[in-house]
Specification:
Shape of chain B: globular
Strand order of the largest sheet of chain B: 1-2-4-3-5-8-6-7
Distance between the termini of chain A: 28 Å
Helix content of chain A: 40-55%
Strand order of the largest sheet of chain A: 2-3-1-4
Strand content of chain A: 15-25%
Largest sheet of chain B: 8 strands, mixed
Number of helices of chain A: 3
Order of helices and strands of chain B: HEEEHHEHHEEHEHHEH
Radius of gyration of chain A: 17 Å
Oligomer: heterodimer
Largest interface: A-B, 30 and 26 residues
Structural class of chain B: alpha/beta
Structural class of chain A: alpha+beta
Largest sheet of chain A: 4 strands, antiparallel
Shape of chain A: elongated
């Protein structure tokens, strides 16, 4: 099972079309293995990107040097997935006897 | 199915069991049609809700075409139970079902859904290998014969928006295409995704407005207003290309071009804390509010036959 320790989801709000195209350029940098959860649409609509741990520093430097503002929507994806899995398993334990 | 836990995410075998239970409990209204098989051989189950007649005008709803969008398959199970619960109680739904059929495909991408539970929670595409590439899968919402292969999809098999080698190359897509064509009397087609809270109508592959744009736009406004009335969840709405981005080979562009006027795509919650990892506590509120929008679209379809 693939795990996502250290992966973060960054929320980027492009200010203008220049920044939009800079973010679009990120899409073509396939070595970063970025996963666009919310794609590039127009200036002001947020873009959410899952960034693997190995690309995090490079991507953040890229955004900061271009003056592109971002926030961290999910600090550690695997922690969130572990919680989700735990909720599923505990809920299943509860409902199993009833079924 | 009264004791089924709609407030949690279920693995695929439990969803299949749920579908069979619902059919067994409602033999006079619910039947299961297997419209095809996924690449890995799983059945593509469609629940048919009908109170009689043959080949009545029909409404299609699908969830889970992008497998990681778990709140959509979960909402689909809640919708199924809502239909059988409200028929005979809710006058609007009763009127609709007395004249129309509803078809609901809950797990539209079963191979991908199984894979998200057992191998990779982030998986979105189908699971068919791509010859000549290490990367597996096609984006099933770029594989339809509507602007196929144009801007707004990728030709790279490793991309999340890979359109596939040709239109309808994915059996999960081709099976719906064949079913819709053979049925021939669909009047509304609603494909449900998550996330980002939008209600979208065609087109995605071209800036040319659809001829029914004014009607689709005003109906979308009514639908999202009803949706927001429950918990205040705010949606944006409009055509795919003007509201989000250019996307070619999309489901509802093809269905609209087949003459199914009321073609819509939903993007359910959330706005940006959890993305696809929406907590299960939000499943039922999401399904409840979405249902109000679905009812607006279905009621309009029923009252405006064409």
């Amino acid at each position: 099972k693939e795990t996502f320790e250290g992966h973060q989801v960054l929320r980027i709000v492009p200010k203008d079309d220049v920044q939009l195209s800079l973010i679009k350029d990120l899409e073509d940098m396939i070595e970063f293995e970025l996963d666009f959860w919310r794609g590039v649409t127009d200036a002001v609509t947020p873009v959410d990107i899952r960034v693997p741990f190995h690309s995090l520093q490079t991507v953040k430097i890229y955004l900061e040097t271009q003056g592109i503002e971002y926030s961290t929507m999910i600090e550690d994806l695997q922690t969130m997935l572990d919680d989700e899995q735990e909720e599923m398993e505990s809920a299943a334990r509860v409902t199993q006897p009833r079924n | 199915t009264d004791s089924y836990d709609y407030g949690r995410y279920h693995p695929i075998n439990e969803i299949y069991d749920f579908q069979d239970m619902l059919v067994a409990e409602n033999p006079n209204m619910v039947s299961k049609i297997v419209i095809g098989q996924s690449y890995e051989g799983r059945p593509l189950n469609v629940l048919k809700f009908s109170t009689g007649g043959t080949n009545r005008p029909a409404i299609w709803i699908d969830t889970g075409i992008h497998s990681r969008e778990w709140v959509t398959q979960a909402s689909g199970q809640w919708f199924a139970k809502k239909i059988v619960t409200d028929y005979g109680r809710d006058p609007t739904l009763t009127a609709i079902l007395n004249k129309m059929d509803i078809f609901l495909e809950i797990v539209t991408n079963p191979d991908g859904y199984y894979y998200t539970h057992n191998n990779n929670r982030m998986w979105r595409k189908t699971r068919k290998p791509n010859p000549g590439s290490n990367c597996v899968g096609v984006d099933p919402n770029r594989n339809w014969d509507a602007g196929f292969g144009g801007p707004g999809a990728s030709g790279r098999p490793c991309s999340e928006t890979y359109h596939g080698p040709r239109a309808n190359s994915e059996s999960e897509v081709k099976s719906i295409v064949d079913f819709v064509k053979s049925h021939g009397n669909f009047k509304a087609f609603i494909s449900i995704h998550s996330y980002s809270q939008m209600l979208l109508y065609p087109y995605g592959y071209t800036r040319t407005p659809v001829k029914d744009q004014a009607e689709l736009h005003s109906l979308a406004k009514k639908a999202i207003t009803d949706l927001a009335s429950l918990y205040g969840t705010r949606y944006r709405y409009g055509s795919i290309i003007s509201t989000i981005y250019q996307a070619s080979g999309g489901t509802i562009d093809w269905t609209y071009n087949q003459g199914i006027k009321y073609s819509y795509t939903f993007e359910l919650r959330d706005t940006g804390r959890y993305g696809f990892i929406l907590p299960p506590s939000q499943i039922i509120p999401t399904a409840q509010e979405t249902w109000l929008a679905l009812m607006a679209i279905m009621d309009h379809t029923y009252k405006n036959p064409y």
